[in-house]
Specification:
By secondary structure, this protein is an alpha/beta fold. It contains eleven helices and 13 strands. It has two domains: 32 residues; 276 residues, TIM Barrel, CATH 3.20.20. Strands 10-9-8-7-6-5-4-11-12-13 form a ten-stranded mixed beta sheet. The protein has a three-stranded antiparallel beta sheet with strand order 1-2-3, with no helix packed on it. The protein starts with a strand and ends in a 5-residue tail after the last helix. The mean pLDDT is 92. It binds iron/sulfur cluster (SF4).
Length: 314
């Protein structure tokens, strides 16, 4: 494995390997960062899929971020910061590719999230972006169990995932059932999986109000299975790796376990090393689930992060 980046952040050193592994080191004190290590960056609210549970309420008529307006903020982000670029569908932003060239010049480490349909339709473009190291990781929102996936589409999706070594299948608790997760490896060759918590905000809230008992049951099934098998989950499911966002850990009652038993695998609480930036509206927040969002104004990246660490605007 090659070293992708190393830098000092406050009282510790960060090492990032090209398989995405991150290592923090110091002499044993609690880590106190002065800059954010990573940020979720929303660059568009446009998306053609209209998923009924979309927590960003993205739609075909929504607007894109104006990068020029936020150039001073972007220019103040430190090299080697990991940017998880999302939307909406980032591929629809007309300046997406030139934004990635800018990110490369600034030595950021960008990844992106796309819906499986967009991966199928634009796989050559996405493969090119990863080959040229304009994108490092690709998160793929996988089909919901009730979505029709023709055998032809499934073959193309399999092939696209196999050709993207950094692809991670995104699954949402409450939407993707235990049965779906258990069958995933048989259908998609031992993939890497990221389990995301269900976000009951915007359309996600409306969806929860309509389908609450189904969502709860689906989460309970996964929770029961994962709590029993937590130490052996990748072998049990034949997955290459399983990771969780903090909301998923909370919804699976695994947060305390990860904080205490596996601290080297726990990347920190929301807003401790990370933050969320909405370049469409020009707002920042502790995370994408925060309903409290604040204007970027003329603040630098470091100034915003210090506010995030204090819990928001001050
Ligand atoms: S959940 Fe993702 S794919 Fe679905 S509408 Fe929202 S941004 Fe688009």
């Amino acid at each position: 494995m090659a070293v992708l980046a190393k830098y000092t952040n406050g009282n510790y050193r960060v090492l990032i390997l090209d398989d995405g592994t991150k290592i923090r080191v110091n002499n044993g004190e609690p880590f106190v960062p002065t800059r954010f290590e990573s940020a979720d960056i929303k660059i568009t609210n446009q998306c053609l899929h209209n998923c009924p549970y979309c927590h960003e309420a993205s739609s075909p008529m929504s607007v894109h971020a104006d990068f020029a307006r936020f150039k001073p903020f972007l220019d103040s982000i430190h090299p080697y910061t990991e940017l998880a670029i999302g939307g909406g569908n980032p591929l629809l932003h007309p300046e997406f590719d030139s934004f990635l060239v800018y990110c490369k010049e600034r030595q950021f480490i960008p990844s992106m999230t796309v819906n499986w349909r967009d991966l199928i339709q634009q796989k050559e473009r996405i493969q090119k972006l990863t080959r040229e190291k304009l994108i490092y990781g690709v998160g793929v929102s996988m089909p919901a169990p009730n979505e029709r996936l023709s055998p032809e589409d499934e073959e193309v999706l399999k092939g696209a995932l196999a050709e993207l070594p950094t692809a991670i299948c995104h699954l949402i608790l409450g939407i993707h059932t235990l049965d779906y997760i258990q069958r995933l490896a048989q259908r998609f060759y031992s993939p890497q999986v990221l389990l995301l918590g269900f976000k009951p905000v915007r359309r996600g809230l409306e969806y929860k109000q309509q389908k609450d008992s189904v969502i709860q049951k689906n989460i309970e099934d996964v929770k029961f299975f994962f709590q029993d098998e937590c130490d052996y989950i990748t072998q049990e499911l034949n997955l290459e790796s399983v990771s969780f966002d903090n909301l998923a850990l909370e919804q699976l009652d695994l947060l305390d376990l990860f904080r205490s038993k596996d601290p080297e695998y726990y990347m920190g609480d929301e807003g401790q090393f990370t933050m969320f930036v909405d370049l469409v509206k020009g707002e920042y927040a502790v995370s994408s689930t925060s309903m409290e969002r604040f204007p970027l104004g003329g603040l630098t990246a470091d100034e915003i992060f210090q506010r995030v660490r204090r819990g928001g605007e001050c």
